[in-house]
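Escalated from tier 1: magnesium ion holo job.
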Amino acid sequence: MRSILTVYRKELTDHFSSNKFLVLLALIYIAGLSSTYVALQNIRESASGLGKYVFLYLFTTGGDVLPSFITFISFFIPIIGIIFGFDAINSEKNSGNLSRLLSQPIYRDSVINGKFLAGITTLSIIIASIVFIISGIGLFSIGVPPTSEEILRIFFFIFICIFYGGFWMGLSILFSVIMEKTAASILTAIAIWIFLMFFLPIIANAIANGIAPLENASVADQIRNFNIGQGILRISPSTLFAESIAILLVPTARLFQPTLLNIVQTPPQNPLSLGQSLIQVWPQLVVIVALAIICFAISYIIFMRQEIRST
Amino acid sequence: MSEDNNIIIAKDLSKKYNEHLVVDNLNLAIKKGEIFGLLGPNGAGKSTFILMAMGLTEPSSGSINVAGFNSTRQPLEVKRITGYLPEKVGFYEDMSAKGNLTYTAELNNIPYREIPKKVDEVLEIVTLTKNKNQLVKTLSKGMKQRLGIADVLIKDPRLVFFDEPTEGLDLKVANQILQTILDLNKQKNITFLLSSHQLNLMQKVCPRVGILSRGKLIGEGTVENLGRNLFGGGKYRIELELEKVTDGLIEKLKKLDKVVNINKVDNQLQVICDKDIRQDISRLIAAEDILMTRMDMKQDALEEIYLKYFKEE
Amino acid sequence: MEIIKRKLPVFFIILSLTLSIILMVPAALFAQEEETTEEEIVEPEPEPEELIFDTKLPKIQAKEGETFSFNFDVAYKPGDEPFGIEEGKSEKTFDITVDYPTGWIAAVASGSTEAPAINLKFNSTESLRLVAIPLITQQPGEYDFKVTFNSAVEGDTLEGSIEFTAVAPPTYEINLTTKTGMLSTELTSGKDNHYKLIVTNNSSTSVENISLSSTEPEGWQVSFDKDKIESMEADEKIEIDVTINPPEKTIAGDYMLTFGASSENSNDSFDLRVTVETPTIWGIVGIGIIVVVIIGVAVIFARLGRR
Ligand SMILES: Nc1ncnc2c1ncn2[C@@H]1O[C@H](COP(=O)(O)OP(=O)(O)OP(=O)(O)O)[C@@H](O)[C@H]1O
Ligand SMILES: [Mg+2]
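Tier 2 regenerated the structure:
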């Protein structure tokens, strides 16, 4: 147990001493603060027209030029996950540290566990700190404390972010276990990220339009088109994550299940309770957590079975 | 050989990588307190043997015990008392020498309070005290190898596996490393297993060597004995190429002082002996009035071994 | 051009005034001469020449700033011996002068044209108009105007006049504004914020029963130290202290409040842009959170970073 802690502490130190950490932290802080600035601007301008959950608007409101905090964070979390995982194992192998490390009286899994935990901790610190800073700024400038429900929602949001980051970290650690070159593992991870982020929506759209064309489509066909597209998009953890945090941070939101009414107009909806919001995205949450665990478990098993090479 | 005296005992040890036999039915015992040289050409299976001894990889069959612990089943116990310096030892380049050693000390469960003292102590041994706070990436190759020794000493090992200790070092540095090994062996009674293909260097520090070729242990013992075996029991081998070989000549040669054995192949003779008796032989052959076309003497057993086993590939 | 146009009415008035003075001096001289001749010749009374004025509305009232228009008829009866009329002619020319108080201009107009002089046919009635324009806001009260017709014939003393009264009613204007004159302010939620308003009575007379009102966002409390003013003299200013209490949980930001003052005859209102500031306690808590997080990250850096 102490060996996990030792590896964990050392890895954490490595992360906190690295330039990539500083760059990421700075990027996320700048993005977070600027989106908060825009959100505050909007909140102050329409102060009288806002509902009960003003505090959450801090995270969900964007402007014309800058997107909202949750948009930024959905973009950055995979990057953090990949950056802090892609060279976990292969860099140790290449530098010749792994065999020296494993010749110490520790179990082999201490290395991968300690590294994963350190990565997750770093990710958590980055996300939690910016969320708390934004909350502090919000409190300072809105002057209305969040309700206990809002606080709970924010904590859930942080947890989901961590698990989502855990998925990407697990994935990139997996590549670091099965690929010799760090360049290969980072490129593979980023390729997958780009595919899920940018190409899958195009593909989903194309397939949906192929099966149920939208030209002169009846309402039923439009619904079918949407369902097919969304169904394909849900392959991607990014979609699941986006859906979860949207539902969680916008209490009035519902998962978009198109009905006749929805296509014609979206009626204003009452806010859901936290429990109801969670129930809506429960499958998404379960899949995100499961994917994070599965990715890490696979890397763990492969790493444990790998032959150690002396050279 | 009593069990108590041996720190490493390998029994019928084999290792296959994808049906490729790398260590083949190896039986080897290494005594406490000795410096054993595991010699063999590249790809002989030396490193694989060490990995199995450290419990870092599992044998395909057979067993290996270190200090009474089964390396495969009790790797932690083995690692606690065994130091391993891999062939390509690596350190965290962005950490200082001290930082790297501290990390190793922590992984070895050394109490936090004792770590700084321990680190200073091992750095002193390898004379790196001055470079304590230097980043590893600024150290020379020889310094890194010394840092490797320090790293291994942190855990106060009873046994050290040193894979290719002199590989890539110039002669002076290599000798320094070997001297350190000798000192440690004497002062701390640490058993060393050095793997190398640099026989000439190993010869100086290893009273006993084992020769590994294609996964098989083909010889084991002192270098002198190995040479003797190779030369049919003698220290030297004098090769003669003659116009003709007569039985009388062989008889006379056999009677020469220090001659152990004589082999005949066509009109070539190998005289195995314990002393350089080339003059006696020349005189004798001249007396017999036989024309000698060539006479060579092989005295360096290691070179011979090298030629025989190491140049194969 | 511009200046001339604007000055034109004034120019006309001055011109007609001087003209009438120039004409009236010899007329007055002649009038004296005639008196002496009349006394000498005593003859049976012939029917005299005369001007007959008639109006239905000699006194009218108009709203502030409006033009007063008095309609009147004038008729000329030549009598038996009209003075200085050539044989065969059946009309006489009269100069028209208007006396009016300062602060006004007034002139007689026929139809839409100003008439400094007029030819009156024998025994026929002419409809004319006296137009009086207040040049400044007039104090309420009565203003007298006198239109005088003088015969333009040399030596003729025939004259007639008609008087009118313009009644300027009292004006009512109350103004409501902030004491500072700025239409925006900053307030803190959850506490009473005091703010000063000024009611000014710009009426020409005193005003009674002014009530103050406000429109505010839901949940806000706005109260006045006096929400009714019994009476205000003309030009009086009264300071009103208004207490604005945005509810505790008001989001910091901009809100619109409308304040109004109204009396029977006049009312005024304005929009106040209120920027609600964070109550200090939450400001401190917010800053506290930020500081704690930043210190936390810094401590982690110091403890773990190798720099
Ligand atoms: N993990 C592995 N998977 C497959 N083959 C391996 C693995 N490790 C070693 N080998 C093969 O086993 C053989 C013996 O390797 P080993 O490293 O034990 O040789 P060595 O005696 O240490 O040689 P060298 O002097 O080059 O270090 C080599 O042919 C090598 O290619
Ligand atoms: Mg090797």
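Chain C touches chain A through 32 residues (CB under 8 Å).
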